[in-house]
TrEMBL record, chain A:
PANTHER family: (3R)-HYDROXYACYL-ACP DEHYDRATASE SUBUNIT HADB, 3-HYDROXYACYL-THIOESTER DEHYDRATASE HTDX-RELATED
Annotated family: Belongs to the enoyl-CoA hydratase/isomerase family.
Family matches, as SUPFAM superfamilies: Thioesterase/thiol ester dehydrase-isomerase
Protein name: Dehydratase
Native species: Actinomadura spongiicola
Domain MaoC-like: 18-120
GO-annotated molecular function: fatty acid synthase activity
UniProtKB/TrEMBL annotation, chain B:
Biological-process GO terms, alphabetical: fatty acid biosynthetic process
Species, as recorded: Actinomadura spongiicola
Matching Gene3D superfamilies: Hotdog Thioesterase
Pfam family, one: FAS1_DH_region
SUPFAM superfamilies: Thioesterase/thiol ester dehydrase-isomerase
Occurrences of domain FAS1-like dehydratase (ranges): 8-135
GO molecular function, one term: (3R)-hydroxyacyl-[acyl-carrier-protein] dehydratase activity
Descriptive protein name: MaoC family dehydratase
Length: 141, 145
């Protein structure tokens, strides 16, 4: 495993630059196909509304994957991620026109043994926290 | 609808072996908009110390969704009311192309929570040779009608 970030170079509180990810309906259709999760609440507005949602919502796993990408882009080698968990606190609502945006930020919360660190993530859409308790354990160089 | 509490603690038989392919990894990486070469290019993966391309950290959702546990009619799960509550992937080593894996799923908890049904599921992902790869923890919530 060859992480691009050195354990010695980070401290508790080290921030990873925030990023914004766009998500639209086509992304959700593609994700449905690749993941096998064809729940229509992720692509049919009438179904989403019929079950009480404000509109089509992103797959929680799509949002989680963007958080994962944020961490793996920072560390370079995705194999350095040894543990990744989230709680889905609020759905990412994806309107037909314009889609939605996800703002993700993170910082080193803890340094563990064996060059591992805990990265705590924050993910928001339309000002709402969409992930809570989002943490990745990453093995650095 | 209340889920069947008799299913608490139940472990389901191993899923059919699933072969992780380079093509599926690339398709999944494309779908999450991730162009990391370690998902696509064997040479890049080898340079990073992997025998072959590896899968994104959230890829095992593809196989855990194939678990027979959630479709067991006796459980009484209404999929149209299900939302994802929590998800975690705990790796022993990265999942990679060429791995043939099976999932063993256990329902660890079912409880009522503010009018919803909350179910926790653990899935143990191993190669068919018995090598542990990843453990997933999944909480789904069936919203009250």
């Amino acid at each position: 495993m060859t992480a691009n970030v050195k354990y010695a170079d980070v401290e508790v509180g080290t921030e990873i630059p925030a990023r914004t990810f766009a998500v639209d309906r086509a992304d959700l259709v593609r994700y449905a196909g690749a993941s096998g999760d064809f729940n229509p609440i992720h692509w049919r507005e009438s179904v989403a509304k019929a079950v009480g949602l404000p509109n089509v919502i992103a797959h929680g796993m799509y949002t989680m994957a963007q958080g994962g990408r944020y961490v793996t882009d920072w560390v370079g080698d995705p194999g350095a991620v040894v543990d990744y968990g989230v709680r889905f606190s609020s759905p990412v609502v994806v309107p037909d026109e314009g889609g939605a945006t996800l703002e993700i930020s993170g910082k080193v919360e803890k340094k563990l043994d064996d060059n591992k660190v805990v990265v705590a993530l924050t993910a928001r859409s339309e000002g709402q926290k969409v992930l809570t308790r989002a943490k990745a354990v990453v093995k650095l160089a | 609808m209340a889920l069947n509490r008799d299913y608490i603690g139940r472990t389901f038989p191993p899923s059919e072996p699933y072969e992780v392919s380079r093509v599926k990894i690339r398709e999944f990486a494309d779908a999450i908009g991730d162009d990391n070469p370690i998902y696509r290019d064997q040479e890049a993966a080898k340079a990073a110390g992997h025998p072959d391309v590896i899968a994104p950290p959230t890829f095992p959702i593809v196989v855990s969704l194939l678990s027979p546990a959630l479709e067991d009619p006796g459980l009484g799960l209404n999929f149209s009311m299900v939302v994802h509550g929590e998800q975690r992937f705990e790796y022993t080593r990265p999942l990679r192309a060429g791995d043939v894996i099976t999932c063993v799923t256990t329902i660890t908890e079912i409880k009522s929570l503010a009018g919803n049904e909350k179910m926790s599921v653990e899935t143990d992902i191993k190669t068919v040779e018995g090598e542990p790869v990843c453990k997933t923890h999944n909480v789904i919530v069936e919203r009250g009608a």
